[in-house]
Recover the amino acids of this structure.
């Protein structure tokens, strides 16, 4: 049977987040799985792979792209299956089919693999050839291939771990009974992991009284408290034991899992413990950590409201304090939430939960993976990453308005009037007066949005040069690499230069960009 080619679409457009779906048997089980391209580039493996080479193995293809929160949500499920069947001839292969231009760069994909602790090999599918051959229409999609190289089952969305587990067990059992299962599992070696003081720093906040800078050192699963002095910063305290986990207690006992957003209020530091799906409260005086909201389980759609540990959250990515409330960019449910730190009640503030770019009242508005948030007068300003947009939400009414952005597949790097400007998957914002600074992550840039003039300009950008010459100043400075956050403080921009594993400082008066040296 010939393979029918299909155009790439986004199944999530205008629909609820992909929740629990069924794994369905392939319509034609006798169909041979299409071979992977011979000239494809592979990552996280010591050699290229092919289905022919994996004869006798049960193979699970995971079609993903590293911007997609749904794709990140299924990684723990894949890790569980890899651990469970580690001694069996079973292999997960990630097929990275990029959405954004920036996601086509192999080095950026490599960094995402390291950041998210992906252990299986990944093949790059920039042209979506594998995507089309396997008739894929949404991220994430799974295709199960039997030990005889034939298609067995497929499914899309989150919450499929148990279904996948059942189908994998059946496939292994049937292959064993037929005598076609490989006697030994193929051995694949991963490249060594890099080491650095910071590992993929995510978000920043400054304590308004002490001036101390807090950094979510996300892949080290901890928070650092820094005392900046010029181009240097003393590490005053480390919050968290530095290993992935979920535990309250003292600074040395507490455990986080890929923490992101931070907000300092008085003697409290609030943290988006993103992969634990929790909001944590750090008492800077007592030096303790406790869970403010979330039970550690990811909420499925529609998310239910509740109090404290009775509630499930969905990948909180950033937060900001306004009055006596915390407002949360809930990336996983495509909404803004609010939380009362005193009563610990958390509830939806704006966003229907459908992934799209639609303005309006809180229950009508659609958001798409909000990932950065700050306060702008009586409004919240947030980076809606999957629509590459800058948006506001009235802090009282919940009315959502788009300043920059057009839709899920409209992105680029263009300065000028808001109506024609383009961003590419921004993750961080910092607002002051009529100005919003944006960490335009996939453009490797810091942008400045002037709300009075309704115009945007580029403050820092990566030079588009492939050749350096002696005396070329553009080549003297390390360019930004997927900055996840920006923070304005005393005429300086502090930048989480995530893929460079650094904190950078840009002086707005001298226009000098420097690296903050940690002592």
């Amino acid at each position: 049977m010939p393979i029918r080619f299909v155009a790439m679409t986004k199944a999530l457009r205008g629909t609820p987040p992909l929740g629990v779906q069924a794994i369905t048997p392939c319509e034609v089980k006798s169909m041979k799985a299409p071979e992977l391209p011979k000239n494809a580039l592979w990552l996280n493996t010591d050699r290229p792979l092919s289905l022919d080479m994996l004869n006798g193995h049960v193979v699970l293809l995971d079609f993903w792209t590293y911007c997609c929160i749904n794709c990140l949500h299924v990684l723990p499920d894949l890790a569980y299956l890899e651990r469970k069947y580690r001694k069996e001839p079973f292999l997960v292969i990630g097929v990275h089919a990029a959405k954004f231009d920036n996601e086509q760069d192999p080095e950026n994909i490599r960094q995402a693999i390291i950041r998210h602790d992906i252990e299986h090999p990944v093949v790059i599918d920039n042209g979506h050839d594998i995507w089309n051959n396997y008739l894929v229409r949404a991220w994430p999609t799974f295709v199960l291939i039997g030990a005889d190289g034939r298609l067995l089952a497929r499914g899309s969305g989150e919450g499929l771990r148990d279904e996948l587990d059942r189908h994998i067990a059946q496939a292994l059992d049937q292959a064993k009974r037929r005598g076609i299962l490989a006697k030994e599992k193929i051995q694949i070696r991963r490249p060594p992991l890099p080491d650095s003081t910071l590992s993929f720093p995510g978000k920043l906040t400054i304590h308004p009284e002490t001036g101390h800078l807090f950094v979510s050192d996300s892949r080290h699963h901890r928070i650092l408290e820094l005392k900046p002095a010029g181009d240097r910063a003393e590490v005053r305290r480390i919050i968290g034991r530095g290993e992935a986990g979920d535990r309250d207690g003292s600074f040395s006992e507490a455990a986080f899992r890929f923490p992101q957003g931070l907000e300092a209020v008085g003697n409290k530091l609030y943290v988006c413990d993103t992969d634990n799906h929790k909001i944590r409260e750090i008492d800077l005086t007592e030096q303790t950590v406790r869970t403010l909201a979330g039970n550690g389980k990811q909420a499925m759609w529609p998310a239910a409201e509740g109090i404290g540990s009775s509630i499930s959250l969905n990948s909180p990515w950033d937060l900001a304090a306004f009055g006596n409330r915390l407002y949360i960019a809930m990336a996983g449910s495509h909404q803004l939430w609010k939380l009362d730190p005193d009563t610990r009640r958390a509830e939806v503030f704006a966003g229907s939960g459908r992934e799209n770019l639609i303005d309006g009242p809180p229950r009508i508005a659609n958001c798409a993976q909000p990932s950065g948030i700050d306060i702008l007068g009586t409004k919240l300003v947030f980076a809606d990453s999957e629509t590459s947009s800058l948006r506001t939400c009235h802090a009282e009414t919940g009315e959502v308005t788009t300043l920059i952005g057009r839709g899920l597949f409209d992105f680029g790097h263009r300065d000028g009037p808001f109506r024609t400007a383009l961003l590419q998957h921004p993750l961080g914002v910092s607002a002051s007066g009529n100005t919003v600074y944006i960490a335009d992550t996939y453009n490797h840039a810091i942008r400045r949005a002037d709300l009075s003039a309704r115009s945007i300009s580029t403050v820092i950008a990566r030079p588009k040069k492939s050749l350096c010459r002696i005396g070329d100043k553009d080549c003297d400075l390390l360019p930004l690499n997927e900055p996840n956050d920006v923070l304005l403080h005393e005429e300086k921009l502090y930048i989480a230069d995530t893929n460079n594993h650094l904190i950078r400082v840009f002086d707005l008066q001298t226009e000098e960009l420097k690296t903050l040296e940690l002592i």
